[in-house]
Amino acid sequence: MTTATPAADGAATPAEATSGASMAPVGGGAVTPAAGGATPDGGATRGGGRPVEGAPGLARFSFNQATTQGWPLPDLVDALVRSGVPGIGLWREPVADYGLEKTARLVRDAGIAVTSLCRGGFFADAGWYDENRRAIDEAAALGTSVLVLVSGGLGGRDLAGARVHVADAIGRLVPHAREVGVTLAIEPLHPMFCSDRCVISTLDQALAIAERHEVGEVGVVVDTYHLWWDDRAPALVRRAGPRVSAFQLADWITPLPAGVLTGRGMPGTGCIDLPAWVSYADSSGYTGPIEIEVFNTEVWARPGADVLAEAVAGFRAATAASTP
Question: Any keyword Isomerase (predicted)?
Fold first, then answer.
């Protein structure tokens, strides 16, 4: 499959990078797919296939399609069904390549829940408003209530002004997102991406924006790769509570590659205490999907089935003590 590939947490599409559950409701409450979408608790879907029942220990597992770059979507979905993986995180670029309606039908008929769509945001870009409205509509069409927002870079030298603009932009999008049942999930990225990818660098900054709005309208993404270094983050995850809209696992490995976009490690290969992070999410009341999302050129070069198997093992290890 030829893809305009997904980005490192929305930071850039992998094309740019290579060139340079039961699943609970949003915010600890349900990624409830739209009409025809899967309901991963095993109930019937409206107009779709019977939801995939997660294999033992995998009821909350969601596999982000960016982790296996180039694996054709039908093959990936088939592998998820056969492996008892009930959820998938999707990206707009490969979805567009395959076709929005075709993708929605594929996952619906397979009984796979779309746990998130990446990405909206990049609010410094011209045309950001219309592009983000399209992203919101695509999320709704795919049956997910979570649109991940990566704010975009500086666009100049006024960092404070850039962050104000992000908050204002999200506020303008809330009415449309509310209307179609999509939560805008702000993802803070590691500070190394602040200049060109994401001016929202900490969970505290993301929550300061989200808390201006109702729960279910604007939430936050907890991604271990971006937050592990911040000693304030565990308490902030607990504070976020029902505003945790998505939870993603990836590991931190060094040395970082040139350009740093493809430096994420498979769970268990780096220095992050992932079971501790799962416990932080649990303590917030979050009981929703847990995605594995990895951007790594060496991982992308491997057979997709091998990567999926490693992701399953990493998920089991990280969540073995989880109580939800």
Answer: yes
Residues contacting residue 143 through CB under 8 Å, at least 6 positions apart? 33, 34, 35, 36, 37, 38, 104, 107, 108, 113, 114
Nearest to 61 by CA among 90, 36, 40: 40
Q: Which of 52-56, 168-172, 195-199 has the lowest mean pLDDT?
A: 52-56
Token readout for 213 is 């709005």
Residue 8 confidence (pLDDT) above 60: no
- Beta strand 290-292 with 61-64 is parallel
pLDDT tier at 259, thresholds 50, 70, 90: confident
Cis peptide before 119 (omega within 30 of 0): yes
**Residue 264, C-beta contacts closer than 8 angstroms, at least 6 positions apart:** 8, 225, 250, 251, 252, 253, 293, 294, 295, 296
CB atoms within 10 A of CB 230: 16
CATH H-level, domain 8-18+59-319: superfamily:
Divalent-metal-dependent TIM barrel enzymes (3.20.20.150)
What number of helices (H) and strands (E) belong to the chain? 12, 10
Q: Helices 233-240 and 203-210 meet at what angle, rounded to 10?
A: 20
- The pTM score is 0.88
The secondary structure element, H or E, covering residue 87 is: strand 87-91
